[in-house]
Amino acid sequence: MRRKTITRSTGETTVEIDINLDGNGEYEISTPVGFFNHMLELFAHHAKIDLKIKADGDIDVDYHHLVEDIGITLGKCFYEALGDKRGIERYGFFLLPMDETLVEVSLDFSGRGYLNFDVEFFTEKIGEFPSELVEEFFKAFAENAKCTLHIVKRYGKNSHHISEAIFKGVARAIKFAIAKTGDTINSTKGVLE
Q1: For residue 119, what are the CA distances in angstroms to 30, 90, 142, 152?
Q2: Which residues contact 137 (CB under 8 A, 6 or more apart)?
Q3: pTM of the predicted model as reported, rounded to 2 decimal places
Q4: Cβ atoms within 10 A of the Cβ of 185, count?
């Protein structure tokens, strides 16, 4: 079973994540940031992974530390749960419509962490959530999952819709990329690291 639990504690945050890549999309998300909880629930549901996140931190300072540390920890969980990546498809792509918004996501569990984030938000905040933290979350995730991740907004105006399309689109691309369809490593090099 491709499952991992990681706890990360710093002077700013405490994050505990349990992930089952062979789950059904069940989730228990508990952070003090309501909008972010909603995005993480969408992520788990659309990736069809089981995800438990319990996290708290210095949100009286800013949401940044908590969001970034969840991205770091979730990325590490993916990296470790995938192991040598034997049998996975490796690549995932999804084009996600959300009302007036269309977001394109491409990813590769290559063993190399990289984020291209070509997205413009038209508001600084989504409710109380700083929209710039969407990029920070996925940057931390990509670097620690060691995946190449491209997120491109083709069009869209509503910041909530844009964020939701991103989280759902990444989740759907992940669903395809982690699918086990064989028993070999999907690389002519013989390794994905």
Answers
A1: 27, 24, 16, 6
A2: 67, 68, 70, 71
A3: 0.95
A4: 17
